Amino acid sequence: MLAYLLLLVPTPPLAGFVLLALDPYRLDRRAVRAAAIVAGCAPLAVIAPMAIAHLTGLWGDQIAPIFTLYVGSYEVALAVGLDTLSAVTALTVAFVSACVMIYALDYMSGARNADLRRFFALMNLFQAGMLSMVLAADSITFFLGWELMGLCSFFLISYNMTSPRAFAAGQKAFVITRIADAALLAGLLLLFLEAGSVRLSELIPAGAAIDTARGPLIAALLLIGAMGKSAQFPFHTWLPTAMAGPTPVSALLHSATMVAAGAVLLARFAPVMAANDGVAAATAIAGVVTALFGAASAVAQTDVKRLLAYSSISQIGYMLIAVGVGAPAVAMAHFVVHALFKSLLFMASGVLSHAGAGGTSIAALRGTARRAPIAFASFAAGAASLAGLPLVTAGWWSKEAILASAFEASWLGLAVWAVGLTAAALTAVYAFRPVFTALRAPETETPRGRESWLAVGPLVVLAVLALAGGLGVKPLTELLGGHPPHPALWVELAGASAALLGIAGSAALTFVPALADRVARARRLRAGLQMDARYYALLVRPYRRLVRRLSGGRGEWVERVVGRGRGAQGLERELEGAVRHARQPEGASSDPVGQATVVLGLWIWRALLLPFSPDRMDMAWMWGARGIGRAAERARRLQTGRVRDYALALAFGLAALLLIGWGMTWR
Amino acid sequence: MALIAQLLLPFFGGFAALLAARTGRDRERWVAIAAMGATLVALLAGVVFGDDGRWLAFYRADWAPSFGIQVLLAMDGLTAAMLAISSGLGIISVFISWHVTHRSALFHAAICWTVAAANGVFLSFDLLIFAFFWELMIVPAFLLIALWGHGDREAAAIKFLVFNAVAGLGLLAAVFWMGATSDPVTFDAFVLAESDYSKTAQILLLLGFALAFMVKLPVPPFHAWLPDAHTQAPTAGSILLAGLLLKTGAYGLFRFPPMLFPEGLTALAGWGMALGAFGVVYGGILACGQTDAKRLVAYTSVAHMSIVLMGVCGGVHFALVGAGVEMIAHAFSSSALFLLIGALQHRTGTRDLRELGGLQKTAPAFATSFALFFAAALAMPGTANFLGEALVITGMFQVNWIFAAIALVSLVVSVVYATRLIGGIAFGAPKPAVQNVPDLHRYELWPIAILGLCALVFGLFPQLLIGWLWTAVEAALEPLIVVQP
What we know:
The structure holds 2 protein chains of 2 kinds. By secondary structure, chain A is mainly α.
């Protein structure tokens, strides 16, 4: 029965969403903030004891059935559950999102009350979505949470509703992730039909055991789903533009939720992936390509938030590598570490941007190290963890584990390892660029600003974890059922030197003007290889053209094809009326397929009408009538009105009568 | 008795509304509400005291025995759901039309008669009576569009009339043929279901039935009347069209082809699914191209109803129950969207997405309501719409994965048009038209709340709906399974 407490994890944020969205009590600012923060932190309070009890072995795997659906012979049993993976991920999600919520209280303090309400309502729903996804024990609840995040991401990215750019960014994110979601749904439904159950504990082994062509197909569909949500190459284009959302949104989106959800999905379905070698290899390759591509693009960025966006893309690429080489536990360890330092980096960058010259460009960060020292120190800690500064940061431990796992895996893993190492060096390059820039003397001297404790508190906590968390990586990997790799010393040294080399490169890029200029000119790389423009040309524009072509017409061609009815007389006037009615109302567009029916109908109508237009029977009657008319016309001529004519007629008549009389007496 | 009440109460309620209008202001509204409220109560009684077997309630009486015509009414879970939607939407239509004063008595009578005729369609199992109600339904709906519509309303009303009346001929011809060839003459659907038509005859008869149903549904290429009728109709007319008239087509398709012509349906199922798949994508793409909010939603109806066609033609449990769920879910979501757009048009005088925008700033409750049904329109999990689509797609995977893949494409397209709709209405800086828009008032808020609750409750607790539809699904599948290869 205690398992039902799991339902209390996503419930508080959900309740917070309902309360804030419907707002039945007309909450004032303080109440809104209080409701949001209680709803946002409650999951942590609920899950922490349960997860810790589970991870320390006091409490076994739990399942709390919600309800069961009966569709014929199939049973669809919805449930939430707790196993090691969900305990770790749920704890991470709850912790990081609580930090973000606290930070958001300060960050959003300038917003209008209505916007504040909308913001926190959506953030709460977002949390609820991710939490129900990681706790899901069946594929339906899993997909529910997955999609809820997509919906919330749309509204949160376009939180600034008056900005067309923000709306376009939200729409783009929603459409691209939905493409992947459709693939995921297909995969989950096929898996359900194969396994006959939605319970993950039955679904996944059944999925791994499929030996028909459907096995690789399902695995590939799941991979596509994960790649879309995790913004992996070539689905990555939505993430950098998603920076249109407020910073806390990015902090939540990139660290523990949404973007990381793809990695959680793959870790969850790792047995299915592992059972299909080709798909597993594809996962590793997709991961390493994205890791390298994201890191290289991040180097060329001039905007901190876009830099961090490409870094998320790249880091989740590492998680894909781990899943691809068969080490999902390592991937999840990196997921935890990444959630910590990525949320930290975003939130700290928000504070630094506010303290700096304004705007989110890297150049604007100059001098902020002095103005906001605590935020800067935390940012530096996060950057060190991201760059994988050897031994002292959590990021080094988890990334090294991934690279070492790849190294030990196979010949393909070796190639992956080499490319991943390059990406790691690039990671250090871009991670430290904002740090070094912030250290540079500002162009105009300003005094140290105020750092709100609400904003800085979570930063300090996260910074400590991002550094010291390295101690926990190995135990965590073992807990998750993985084996921490033990690579040769030179492999570890290579990893360490890559990070150090990268940091040196970063310093060169920041402090050597010539190099900095080259970075500033790397426009192609900054635009993420212009995949955006390519998608626009390849997909969006043709789609728009198709839509315009189909819906642009006004239906004039009905008239052209059917004709207007010659002379508009007789029954043809009917035809003209029909054509007029078949056209679209003023200003409305029409579509060809719909009009085709109309045209066909009018053709038949016309074919029926024309033989009777003019009406033959009517013509016959009218011909008779006209004959009578003509006869009457002639008869009329007799009436001349002249006396002599009538006298002549009288005379003729009399003569005729006499003649007849004479004739009748003739014998 | 409860079944007869479903027909007579709204029918005479309409006349009562006509008369009541003379006795005082707003009387006709309350009479119409009372009549349809009483219909709902009668329905509730019929369900609560219903039987356990195949039918919740059954009624049979001779009408013209020498021609074999009976009054044959039967109600199962599916029927009950449709009847509840029918009267419920009727009441909602009255409430949101409080501003209608032009010939108000006839307006409310027309609403009542639409409900009565639709109830007749849902209940009748004597095919001649079914066809009679089928044709009857067109008349009050025609009046609603032609008399209280906007803009080019006569043209739209005539288009509606011609499409539906011509299509009704197919149904009528098939019914007459079936009645004439039966011996002794009968139009009893249960008896006719037992007769063994040849496969060719089944296909021909099915085509006659399907013509009527597919035009009403509507599935491309028979959909041209719908966008015009929706845009020119008054709000109440749009609600009844989307929530009720379209559903009669879906209901007919669900009920009669599997029961009467299982062989014909199995033979044509592939074509039906192909047409549905085409309609899903085509309707979705067209919806993306509209600038008129009502036309946009009308095209989404085309897409969603095409899913119903796919589901019915699928002929497996998942697909059929999905079709049933989808048509009920669509009744909630699309009528709510039409309600909202109608209310917006009443306030701003425009439905053009280019002139609207910024509602979030000026009327937040309005925008929030839009967001809710936005989620339903794009089949967000947790709404009944997702349940319907997911079930149909599951069924399609069992039948033919190509159709499943096409239906999945619609998930993506739906995001495009839904974001276009909400982007044009709620997002952006407030345009001049939206500057001083009053927020939703009470009479609009509670219908929205009820429709939203229905969409969410059935989406979150699907067993409520699936369990309710199950007898109808089983009954529809039984003859199909026999003939399926």
